[in-house]
Design goal:
This protein is an alpha+beta fold and about 375 residues long. The chain contains 13 helices and 15 strands. The N terminus is likely disordered.
């Protein structure tokens, strides 16, 4: 057994639990994110009961026979699926034991909340700009050559930081970041692999460092800043929680994942970006930040369809989306004022391409 060879206490959780799972939220300590005194509610549309059978989708990438929407969401371990247009819920599906009041666990979708909080902190003057060196906030890394890495490099995953990601290797940085009780220690052990700004390399380390920067720039926990700047202003319907690495007073949020909230409340980040950062007349995030975060930029090693943890859809649609492991999506299609939210659990058949294909088919039919 693997456990015979790895005896360090820091290795126990990766070996015991292996790959991340949706239900892992209950394994880790958490920090509460409280809703405000008033909530915003999407309304039920009159067409809601018909979409599931009238919208047809075909898994083009898998050469499947195709199905109606109801059949497709049930086939692929979908926990929740929601389509909103003009603030009206056109379609909603929940797996057994889930409902619109149950929290679902985000993986990398959480990164899009982190990048949004960076934008807010810049607007408030707590961070000068995306070009500010990260060592202004994390001076412990200055002696290790991190002075040339900026906040934008972290946002765009072009930092050049060394980070191993082998899926089933408990020694990998990916597994250690997810399961460790010592995130602050792990972050400060980081090393440089190449100069910043050369290549895109998607990794958890970048956004974990952004979480620490938010903490130090705002003098609040990441959860506290999220609660103040997004959760209460957006009228979230339910309390949420963010998993942290340990229960001591030094516990820090797993900023690269592990934000847990209801499907409706996740959809509200999509609504905020759909409306260029404006929420019912109040500018929560600057329109320029929304543009900067969602429009790809290939300069300095950037990826052609990726910016601040938002991915650009096909040019024809001008859509963009937050995405996470096992087919988590907050998909925004401004031309039709459509938001699609989908959360799923671990699925060995998961293929990211088929969900993106199906979203395009759906928005063509509604």
């Amino acid at each position: 057994m693997l456990s015979f060879y790895f005896t360090s206490c820091k290795m126990v959780r990766p070996l015991e639990y292996n790959i991340p799972k949706e239900r892992n939220a209950n394994l880790f300590p958490k920090r509460a994110i409280l809703k405000g005194d008033s909530s915003f509610y999407f309304v039920n549309a009159t067409r809601k009961n018909n979409i599931g059978s009238t919208v047809k989708v075909d898994e083009r990438n898998l050469d499947a026979a195709g199905s109606d929407l109801d059949g497709m969401v049930k086939l692929h371990n979908t926990i929740s699926f929601m389509i909103v247009r003009n603030d009206s819920i056109l379609y909603e599906h929940y797996a057994d034991n889930y409902s619109d009041s149950n929290t679902v666990s985000s993986f990398s979708v959480a990164k899009s909340f982190v990048s949004t909080l960076i934008g807010i902190a810049i607007t408030e003057g707590k961070i000068k700009s995306v070009h500010q060196p990260i060592t202004d906030f994390i001076p412990e890394l200055a002696s290790k050559g991190f002075g040339n890495i900026t906040i934008e490099h972290l946002l765009k995953h072009t930092s050049g930081i060394r980070f191993s990601k082998q899926k089933f290797n408990p020694n990998s940085d990916n597994a250690q970041f997810y399961y460790t009780k010592y995130l602050r220690e792990k972050m400060l052990q980081s090393k440089i692999e190449e100069p910043a700004g050369l290549h895109f390399n998607y990794q958890s380390e970048n956004y974990q460092l952004l979480g620490l920067i938010i903490e130090r720039a705002t003098h609040q926990t990441l959860s506290g800043y999220l609660q103040e700047k997004l959760w209460k202003p957006l009228g979230m319907e339910h309390d949420a929680f963010w998993n942290i690495d340990n229960e001591t007073n030094t516990g820090i949020e797993k900023a690269f994942c592990c934000l847990n909230a209801t499907t409706h409340d996740f959809a509200k980040l999509g609504r905020l970006f759909l409306n260029n950062g404006n929420w019912n007349g109040k500018q929560i995030v600057s329109p320029q930040w929304v543009k900067d975060a969602t429009e790809p930029d290939t300069s300095a090693g950037g990826k052609f369809n990726f910016k601040y943890n938002w991915v650009a859809g096909p040019a024809k649609y001008k859509s963009f989306y937050a995405v996470g492991l096992y087919g988590q999506y907050i998909y925004v299609y401004p031309q039709k004022n459509v938001i699609i939210v989908r959360f799923g659990k671990e699925d060995v058949r998961y293929n990211p391409a088929y969900w993106k294909s199906m979203f395009l088919q759906i928005i063509d039919q509604i």
